[in-house]
Design a protein that fits this description.
extended, 123 residues, mainly alpha
Length: 123
């Protein structure tokens, strides 16, 4: 589904690429530049992906297909995303410093549930 979304919204993504170039993130300018830097070892889109991309691009986004409509994130959503990334990076730096000083103490808990781990039965 991600490949289909990428193909369907190529124009929006290309507009985003222009914004990325403005922020000085290196983006290869052509397929040959990309292949020089990263190689030719990648899987190209198949027939089904291209077909679904075309169908979804022109299918009206009403009724059950409304969920398939692409919505650009709002400024508030982007802000929340960047704040969460910054928080994660800051916490990671703290953990790295604690590892460096040999003072890292991690809780003995199941990180999915935040509960104390239990022994699993061997049955």
């Amino acid at each position: 589904m991600t490949k289909i979304a990428l193909r369907t919204h190529k124009k929006d993504i290309d507009a985003g690429d222009a914004q990325l170039r403005e922020t000085k993130i290196p983006v290869p300018s052509s397929r040959s530049d990309y292949e020089k830097e990263w190689g030719k070892d990648y899987k190209k889109d198949g027939f089904k992906t291209r077909l679904f991309s075309v169908l979804l691009r022109y299918m009206p986004k009403i009724g059950p297909f409304k969920a398939l409509a692409f919505n650009n994130p709002t400024a508030q959503t982007e802000d929340l995303y960047f704040k969460s990334i910054n928080t994660t990076v800051d916490q990671y730096r703290i953990f790295l410093e604690q590892v460096r000083t040999d003072s890292l103490i991690l809780a003995n808990c199941d990180f999915d549930t935040a509960k104390k781990p239990r022994r699993q039965s061997t049955h």
